[in-house]
């Protein structure tokens, strides 16, 4: 089967690539190896394009699976053997591993501590190259150089073999990978001498928990540059020579060759979540005659273009590495699940067809981890310079709402994989609406947002917020201690109460505020009145005696045995010390409730104490290392807290602490990347660094009727931002340095700024925002008029 490239397409790709390559490359500042100890399954996938379906990467431990469903797995910098190169890397999605070998055939990957027990190979990181869009490594045990790159939906492999009469390419399809859970079915077959096709069906842990009737299917269609001398098959039951197909768990094929020295064998693999036919169509559409080198050039040109939408300048090379690596992870984290023809995976292995429901190009359907915390990083970055991806997120969720009647906070091929049992999709959509991103059916969007906040009848477990009835009835979620473990179910939530009652109350209050503002904008007065009242739910759980958010029982009394440092009891992935500051919708109200002096002293001492442990769990390598801490930047609930000083009359402390977090929590090492015990949920922590380094943030995630942008401490002397509306914003920070973190004054387009904030619509007009920085706080600048707290 000869794949021909349509006339005119290849020259366009290459011209684009040449044009981008001539620009000053920012790719040198992206280091995918940062943070690769205890990193999540998506994290280390260099051979991909922004938001690609094809995310190719080496795996050191992927076949071990993931017992808890979310833990670090895939590639770990502390491990020194590679077991294969895997194509799919998404939240709860992983599969299709290839591995080149020589010598005696083995069809099991083997154990990390016994590399010779399987086909895995040792490697030396000095012989490894990882760049945006490209990966290369020497497999020491075989003398094979493996290279990877990708288009959106096609993975490319190039294996350079030594001279060997026993060379193999192992196509290991039917085994679990990363977060994918157990394989329930698999199939692979040679279509002809140089084409292979197949699929794998999996049942991930979070699908099993949140959407038990669901499943995740992955399909592929591959082209091989050289006909194998022979083909063998294997399954969990064993191997069979001279057989070109295999089915069931453990299914795979072995392509056998005799290779000359430095002989290259290339594979192009079209991917899909809907069918083999669509995997083939994706390959034909994106890579008919595209060579490996052409694909690499185009992939890196795409990264150059997308990363360069925010160009930063300054003498500190380390900060540029943090910045562009963070932006890389933000643009890598969530991948498309739709095919070139608009097909997308529906619940239970069905296929749907996307339809455009608003102005602009037809949206893509994306797989996505929960948006929990994403309004303090990812959505703000999208709204700034990548609005098409904010639109894709909204359209994806609205498609799921059409199909299933409810949003899903986390999605794997339309299956609900919430993970946190809450649901902030409505808030994120309300933020998109207020930010002017409206390429969708706005009336349908509001209907869905309202339902997410207020509806509870027949609500499926996987849509989260199972305690909405209780919240709307009491104005807060009652605490039930026995729900820590109820009939083997940990941290139970139902229509009457929850173990995570306080974090839910605070979160639902915030999302009710966001929905209220959208209701107000659409003239839904009755809805607004109901929702804005619910947004005050935080007041019901604030104990006036200790000035802390304390779990409250259904009878209105506060729960006893209260330890504000105790994690989990009443709080999802946090404690009362952290969550007491979780009132982003009304910071002035919280300041007044605590008293301004007490608020500022407590908040400042919180950061003073947490600085001693790197603003998290110290050097403990674990995602929950900081969960008992007074502040935990390695997880979502704390990410807005350092910006609250802008509301309490001390903006210089926001400048001080946000800069210090950027300097000390974020690193440039494989182990110290996003802290030590990071939980980088598909680009959130990287996004936070990017927007904070620019000196821009909104604690309300643009959910106000007229959103604002708070001003912080810009790190770079000059940042040039291509805004999503195609205008340009230049941010200059005169005299900025590691010591000069304090704003002495600012102006926008020549007009002095007296406040530490401005309206977002003013900022999005573009022009020049200039800060003058110094080494001592200017305690008069930005204090006269605090940011509007509630609209």
TrEMBL record:
Gene Ontology CC terms, in alphabetical order: cytosol
Signal peptide: 1-23
UniProt keyword list: Calcium, Signal
Single GO MF descriptor: peptide-N4-(N-acetyl-beta-glucosaminyl)asparagine amidase activity
Domain Glycosyl hydrolase family 92 N-terminal, residue spans: 29-272
Keyword Signal recorded: yes
GO terms for biological process, alphabetical: carbohydrate metabolic process; glycoprotein catabolic process
Subunit relationships: Monomer.
Protein name per Swiss-Prot or TrEMBL: Alpha-mannosidase
């Amino acid at each position: 089967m000869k794949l021909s490239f349509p006339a005119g397409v290849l020259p366009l790709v290459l011209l684009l690539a040449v044009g981008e390559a001539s620009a000053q490359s920012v790719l040198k500042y992206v280091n995918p190896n940062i943070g690769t100890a205890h990193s999540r399954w998506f994290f280390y996938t260099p051979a991909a394009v922004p938001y690609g379906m094809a995310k190719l990467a080496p795996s050191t431990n992927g076949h071990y699976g993931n017992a808890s469903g979310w833990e670090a797995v895939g590639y770990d910098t502390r491990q020194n053997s590679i077991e294969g190169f895997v194509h799919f890397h998404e939240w709860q999605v992983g599969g299709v591993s290839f591995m080149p070998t020589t010598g005696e055939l083995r069809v099991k990957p083997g154990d990390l501590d016994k590399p010779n027990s399987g086909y895995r190979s040792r490697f030396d990181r000095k012989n490894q190259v990882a760049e945006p869009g490209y990966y290369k490594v020497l497999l020491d045990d075989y003398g094979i150089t493996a290279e990877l790159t990708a288009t959106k939906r096609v993975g490319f492999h190039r294996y350079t073999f030594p001279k060997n009469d026993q060379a193999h390419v192992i196509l290991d399809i039917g085994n679990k990978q990363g977060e994918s859970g157990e394989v329930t079915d698999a199939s692979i077959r040679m279509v002809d001498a140089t084409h292979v096709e197949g699929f794998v069906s999996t049942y991930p842990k979070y699908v099993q928990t949140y959407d038990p009737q669901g499943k995740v299917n992955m399909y592929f269609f591959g082209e091989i540059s050289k006909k194998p001398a022979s083909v063998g098959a294997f399954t969990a039951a064993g191997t069979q020579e001279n057989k070109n197909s295999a089915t069931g768990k453990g299914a795979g094929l072995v392509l056998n060759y005799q290779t000359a020295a430095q002989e290259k064998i290339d594979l192009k693999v079209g991917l899909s979540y809907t069918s083999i036919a669509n995997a083939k169509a994706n390959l034909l559409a994106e890579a008919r005659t595209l060579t490996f080198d052409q694909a690499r050039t185009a992939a890196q040109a795409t990264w150059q273009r997308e990363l360069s939408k925010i160009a930063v300048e300054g003498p500190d090379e380390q900060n540029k590495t943090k910045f562009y690596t963070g932006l890389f992870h933000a643009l890598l984290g969530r991948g498309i699940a739709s095919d070139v023809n608009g097909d997308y995976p529906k619940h239970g292995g069905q296929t749907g067809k996307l339809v455009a429901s608003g102005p602009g190009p037809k949206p893509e359907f994306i797989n996505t981890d929960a948006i929990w915390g994403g309004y303090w990083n990812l959505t703000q970055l999208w709204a700034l310079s990548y609005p098409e991806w904010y639109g894709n997120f909204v359209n994806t969720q609205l498609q799921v709402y059409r199909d299933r009647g409810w949003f899903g906070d986390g999605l794997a091929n339309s299956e609900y994989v919430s993970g946190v049992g809450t649901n902030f999709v409505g808030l994120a959509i309300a933020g998109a609406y207020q930010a002017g991103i409206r390429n969708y059916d706005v009336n349908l969007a509001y209907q869905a947002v309202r339902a997410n906040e207020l509806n509870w009848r027949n609500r499926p477990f996987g849509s989260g917020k199972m305690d909405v009835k209780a919240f709307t009835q009491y104005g807060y979620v009652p605490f039930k201690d026995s729900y820590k473990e109820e009939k083997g179910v940990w941290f139970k939530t139902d229509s009457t109460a929850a173990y995570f009652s306080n974090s839910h109350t605070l979160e639902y209050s915030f999302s009710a505020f966001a929905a209220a503002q959208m209701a107000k904008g659409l003239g839904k007065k009755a809805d607004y009145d109901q929702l804005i009242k619910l947004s005050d739910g935080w007041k019901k759980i604030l104990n006036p005696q200790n000035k802390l958010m304390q779990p409250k029982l259904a009878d209105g009394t506060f729960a006893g045995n209260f330890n504000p440092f105790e994690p989990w009891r009443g709080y999802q992935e946090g404690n009362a010390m952290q969550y007491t500051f979780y009132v982003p919708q009304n910071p002035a109200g919280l300041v007044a409730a605590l008293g301004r002096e007490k608020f500022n002293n407590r908040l400042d001492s919180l950061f003073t104490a947490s600085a001693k442990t790197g603003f998290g769990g110290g050097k403990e390598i674990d995602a929950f290392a900081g969960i008992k801490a007074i502040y935990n930047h390695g997880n979502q609930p704390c990410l807005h807290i350092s910006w609250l000083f802008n509301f309490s009359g001390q903006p210089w402390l926001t400048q001080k602490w946000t800069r210090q977090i950027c300097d000390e929590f974020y690193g440039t090492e494989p182990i110290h990347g996003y802290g030590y015990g990071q939980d980088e949920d598909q680009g959130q922590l990287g996004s936070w660094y990017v927007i904070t380094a620019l000196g821009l943030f909104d604690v309300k995630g643009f959910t106000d009727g007229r959103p604002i942008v708070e001003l912080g401490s810009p790190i770079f002397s000059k940042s040039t931002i291509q805004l999503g509306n195609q205008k340009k914003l230049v941010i200059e920070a005169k005299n900025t340095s590691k010591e000069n973190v304090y704003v002495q004054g600012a102006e926008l387009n020549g007009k002095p700024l007296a406040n530490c904030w401005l309206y977002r619509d003013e900022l999005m007009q573009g022009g020049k925002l200039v800060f003058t920085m110094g080494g001592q706080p200017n305690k008069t600048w930005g204090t006269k008029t605090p940011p509007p707290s509630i609209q």
